[in-house]
Amino acid sequence: MADSVPGGTLRLADDLVISRMGFGAMQLAGPGVFGPPRDRDQALAVLREAVDLGITHIDTSDFYGPFVVNELIREALHPYPADLRIVTKVGARRGQDGGWHPALEPADLVAQVRDNLAHLGVDALDAVNLRLSHAGTGEESVAESFGALAELRKEGLIRHLGLSEASDVQLTEAQGIAPVVTVQNLYNLAHRSDDALVDRCAAEGIAYAPYFPLGGFTPLQSAELRDVAGRLGASPQQVALAWLLRRSPAIVLIPGTSSVAHLRENVAAADLVLPPEAVTALDAIGR
Asked: Phi, psi at residue 87, to the nearest 5°?
C-alpha cells in the first residue's frame, strides 16, 4: 500500500474524500467496452495495483461490459478498503450489438442503480453520475431523471450525486433538486469548451472529472505536447495529465488502462512538475 495519495486528495463531503489521481475502469472490458476482457487476470491485477499505488477513487458503470467491469471490481477488491470510493454512472443501456442507448426514465434509472449495487456488492453507492444524452443541446431539463436519483439518495441507496455530459444550465437545475458533488464531461488539453464550467466547479467545491483526459479513442496529437514532453523527459500522456491537475484544484483524473505498466506511468504524472514555460506552451494548444 502506498504511503501517499497520488495527486493529493479532494474533500467533497465528510464521507467523500477522493484521490485526485483516480482510475477509470472502462478499458477493463473487452474491445469497444463490450464483453469480457482479453486477459481477466491482468484486469484484476490492474485494479489491485491501483489500490496499492494509493488510488482511492475508481470510476465505473454497470454499462461497461455490460456488468463485466463492476464484477471485476468486486472480484478484485471486495471487501473494499475503508478509504476507497467508487463513482458509478447511470443513464444508458447497451444493445446486443454493443451500441449505447440513452435510458433516462425514472423506473429504468432505479433499476440501473439496483444493478450497480448488486454487481459491486454494496448496500449504498458512494456517488452516482447521471449520464445525460451526448446528443443533447444542454438545455434539456434534468428534473425528472435527477429527481429520481435524489429520491434514492433520500432512501440511502446513493450517498452523493453527480452529472455527466452536463451543461452549466443543467448543473444549476440539478443543484435546485439535490447537492451535486461531481461533474464528468469531455475535457482535455485540446478540447477546452468547458473552461468556464471547470472554474465554476472549483468555486463551488464540485469535483470536475474530465473523461477522455488523453483524447480517448483518438489520442491527443500535438507537436507542442511532444516537444514539452521531450524537454521534461516524460511521455506526452504524462504531460497531458499533469497539465490537467495543474489546470484547476477541482479537477480529478480518471485515466483508464488495462496495463499495469501504463497504470504506473499514469500515476507517476501526479508528481510531474511543469515549469512556467511549459505551461505557457501547453495552454496555447487549447486556444
From this structure: -105, 125
* CATH number, domain containing residue 97: 3.20.20.100
pLDDT digits (tens, 9 = 90+) for 108-149: 999 999 999 999 999 999 999 999 987 778 999 999 999 999
Distance CA 142, CA 132 (A): 8
d(CA 243, CA 238): 9
Whether 160 is covered by a domain: the verdict is yes
What are 243's three cell numbers?
Answer: 497539465
Its domain, for residue 125, covers 9-221+244-257
47 Cβ contact partners less than 8 Å away, ≥ 6 residues apart? 23, 25, 28, 58, 72, 73, 76, 77
- 230, part of any domain: no
Q: Which residues are catalytic?
A: 64
**pLDDT per residue as tens digits for the range 16-29:** 999 999 999 999 99
pTM of the full structure:
0.96
* Bridge partners, residue 182, by sequence: 162, 207
Number of domains in the chain: 1
Rounded to whole angstroms, the Cα distance separating 203 from 58 reads: 24
